[in-house]
Amino acid sequence: MIVYSDEQILKGVLRHDNLILQYIYKQFYYKISYFVKKNQGNEDDASDVFQEAIIVIYRKLKENDLVFQKSSFAGYLFSVCRFIWLKQLEKRRIERKKLNETLPFQENLYDENLVELVDKNERYGLYQKHFATLSTDCQKLMQLFFEKVSLREIAKIMGYKSEKYAKTRKYKCKEILIKRIKQDTEFKKILEDDT
Amino acid sequence: MTPNVNYFEQIEDYCQELLSNHVKLQFETELKLDAELRGEVKLRMEVQSAIAENDVISLKEKLKKVTSQSKASNSKNDSFELLNKFSDIQEIDEELSPEDLINLYDSMPKVHVHQHEITINENTHQFYKEQNKTINNSESEDVNDIDFEEFEGLEEAILEKDILSFRQTLNQVAKSMEPQFSVEEIDDFLNYELAEIELVNFEKELSNNRNLKEEVQLHNELEKAIKEKEIISLRNQILQIIKSETSWNVSENDIENFIDGELNDSLLDGFKAELQVNSDLMAEVELRRQINEIIGENDIRELRAELKDAKKLAEVNKVRNLIPISNSKFYKFLQTSVAIVLFLIGVGGVINSGYLSVDKTYDKFFESPTWSAERSVSADITLLQKAQGAFMTDDYAGVVEMKKLAPVATSNNPVFQFYAGASLQKLNNFEEAIADYTLVINHADNLFVEEAEWYRSLCYMKLGNKLQAKQELLAVINRNGYFKQDAKAVLRRLKFMPE
């Protein structure tokens, strides 16, 4: 079996390389899954934690903010996963003292920067989840708006009769999205955490 | 509420009518424009008239009213119960000079009452007042005339004052929680599309209103989150991997070797370590062990499979039957006979082993297609008819020859290509058969695609190309069509076939 170096893995994550992602999954997932299951989680929780940890690493890489000095990719991944799961446990009001430490982790990685990034990732993930539940029409329309495409162009692309209608429709779509986000209990928990 | 210092003197003079005509005119113009000033003048005048005893009587009446109301309704008034303690104050019966009044009364309660009158139009006050009104109204309603026996529980419901009042409160709270700015306004603010006055108002509100700040932040973050297309796609990609990939870090060979007790010592420790914590791997090892046990029961499994195949064959022939209905009894008999013969052959086959060999699997699952005329399409009918005749009389070489000699338009016909492929397969020319089947599959817009995939997978298997065969079989399974079960069976056998 091929063994990839940390550098190859990071480059692979950055370019969404399917082979590298599969490698990471096969190599590390079962350990993460074991940790989560040993600490009051289930298979779905484990896959969520794994997924979000990779996204957090990707965000770090994009910001050019990931250098391994004393750590390795595996160590970093496990530490991020552990941190994300601890946060979930806190949200679920589950006692932290009873934690089964089956993953090797590095406490020094838990800096303010990581905390902020995980929080941001959580919020953005929630928004993106609800965005995906909108009709394709709404999704496309909102993306065009945010990409600063002109109203005239948007009306043309979407087949609307006027620019005004495009704008009104966009407000409607956004209103639905915001309503759904606000109704989400996860969002309420995030707000509670912030205050 | 703090008046301009410059006006202090003028207010005083104005109240005492000491201003000259010209200054008075100017002051009144200012008064019309400045609500704050108006309020201040009004207050001064009222204080002045109170000091001049004009208002003492009316103030006393007000106090009396307040005292009696607070006794009756137990602090349900408009002034936030602030006047309650006035009931303790001894009422004034005798006439007092302004000096006495000032000495007797603290001027603050008077000013306070006055301020309540001013603020009576404010929201909070209105909210309190409305609640109060509801309670008073419900109290004042004459419920004696209603025949409550006709409406069971109505009396009880009406008398649930606390619930009624609570419901009102909830309504008011809900109203006050509604966002003050619409999505449209916030969007316009973020896109710099608000008019100047609206922008000033918005920014003023934004600096004081925490809810609005959070709302604007949500809008901002939402925009950024939606723009993160690459993260959305990465998340989907990971999800797909989780769904489709096995989560163990060992090869299939390692699992097989582990089950057979043949795994190298160098790999064994790692394997065992993963097996302890990886529940998916545990399940896979267990499944494979069970499959091995089942495969050991050759006779029972073969018999079961042959029975199933015989039944299926009879059903297939029903579907593919091209014989007119008048002859159906005869053909049913024929089908049943064929099924019985096949069944007997199958049972005979149980005696022979070699279940997992390529040849056995191929022979078991390869059934030559029948050329059904109704599936053909126009093109060169004569040549196609000739080819059909040849195929039905097992002249496979003839079909291949005819295709070679046919004009391009006819030889490119997917019907011709498919049966040419089937003929080549019959002649054990698997490579050329694959080429013809590929043409049919790539054409895509015809009725033979699934069959072509199925027969092509068998060709690959016969050629020993397990990987291609596996991919082809997966495609057939995904189509969820007629060959799905057979494809699954072959796929299972492929896994355990020797290299």
How much of the sequence lies in strands of chain A comes to under 5%
* Shape category of chain B: elongated
Low-pLDDT stretches of chain A: none
- CATH architecture verdict of the largest domain in chain A: Orthogonal Bundle
The percent range for strand residues of chain B is: under 5%
End-to-end separation of chain B in angstroms reads: 95 Å
How many domains comprise the coordinates of chain A? 2
Q: Could you give the order of the helices and strands of chain B?
A: HHHHHHHHHHHHHHHHHHHHHHHHHHH
> How many helix segments of chain A?
9
| Gyration radius of chain A, in Å | 20 Å
According to DSSP, the number of beta strands of chain A is 0
Query: Structural class of the helices, strands and pairings of chain B?
Result: mainly alpha
Order of helices and strands of chain A: HHHHHHHHH
Main β-sheet description of chain B: none
Q: Could you tell me how far the N terminus lies from the C terminus of chain A, measured between alpha carbons in angstroms?
A: 49 Å
Q: Considering DSSP H and I runs of 4 or more, what fraction of the residues of chain B is helical? A: over 70%
Number of helices of chain B: 27
